[in-house]
């Protein structure tokens, strides 16, 4: 590990984490310019946790913990297409002061490894807003390659925006 690399651990959401997730859902000032401004209610967060602990065959949300154990963000994966086993990835580091320090890259790499080591899938992918250079670099450092642009596919902040698609196949991941 070089001095700039960060170590993180992924773990499942517990009931004790729900107050943090509720605060995060309302913390508009911590959201970056490329994140949705849609808020989730505390009731909906508690309901989802009661239904499946944020972990199902269709989607999973895991918390990102720094070396000291504190929760600093989350990652998620969900079915990318109804007709395939491919998983789409997402990541977020909650505190803007911790962004740009390698935690996002470490979290994305940990998620990619988790998925290929534990699921019978051949592909992972992510979608990144064209101007989101930080997320593009995270995707690339996690081994995903640029595959193309989907025009007007995501509705964020009142408008449809383009999305750049990055992907990684199991064989590429195995080659490292």
Automatic annotation (TrEMBL):
Recorded superkingdom: Bacteria
Keyword Nucleus: no
SUPFAM superfamilies: Acyl-CoA N-acyltransferases (Nat)
Residues of the N-acetyltransferase domain: 8-167
InterPro entries xrefs: Acyl_CoA_acyltransferase, GNAT_dom, N-acetyltransferase
Keywords: Acyltransferase, Transferase
Pfam families: Acetyltransf_3
PANTHER family according to UniProt: [RIBOSOMAL PROTEIN US5]-ALANINE N-ACETYLTRANSFERASE, GNAT FAMILY, PUTATIVE (AFU_ORTHOLOGUE AFUA_3G00765)-RELATED-RELATED
Entry similarity comment: Belongs to the acetyltransferase family. RimJ subfamily.
Protein name (record): GNAT family N-acetyltransferase
Organism: Roseateles oligotrophus
Lineage: Bacteria, Pseudomonadati, Pseudomonadota, Betaproteobacteria, Burkholderiales
